[in-house]
Amino acid sequence: MTFVILACALPSYALWWPFFVVLFYILAPIPTLIAKRYSIHQESSNACLENAIFITMGIIVSSFALPIVLARCDVIRWGACYLTLSGNVVVYITLIGFFISFDQEDDYNMW
User: What are the record keywords, sorted (predicted)?
Assistant: First the structure.
């Protein structure tokens, strides 16, 4: 979030358009969380979970595409675009870590 706020608030950029990626940060985990809640643990593939992952990937790609499109249209500067993209990488690595750590079975052997 620091990179996104810097992309918006630095005096050389001074536009708050890159802050709209926060909406994608909020929307990205929702389909997967809903699908995991209603999925039955099966050995075969689960269509509901696969559709949720597809929608999540669309949201993630959109969050990377928005700052690039804004920079190409000269709405924001390229420096703000790079800061927003680096913020995206940090936020989505954190979300992946969240899903990996809470998706594991509850075994008491941590290591």
Answer: Receptor
The whole-angstrom separation of Cα 26 and Cα 21 is: 9
In a domain, 31, yes or no: yes
Q: What would the pLDDT profile of 7-50 be if each residue is shown by its tens digit?
A: 989 888 888 999 999 999 999 989 988 887 776 665 567 788 88
Helix axes 47-72, 78-103, angle to 10 degrees: 160
Residue 110 located in a structural domain: no
How do residues 65-76 score in pLDDT, each as one tens digit? 999 999 999 999
Asked if residue 108 is part of any domain, the answer here is: no
Which range marks the domain in which residue 55 is found?
2-103
Counted domains in the chain: 1
* DSSP string for residues in 77-92: -HHHHHHHHHHHHHHH
H helix runs in the chain, sequence order: 2-9, 21-27, 30-38, 47-72, 78-103
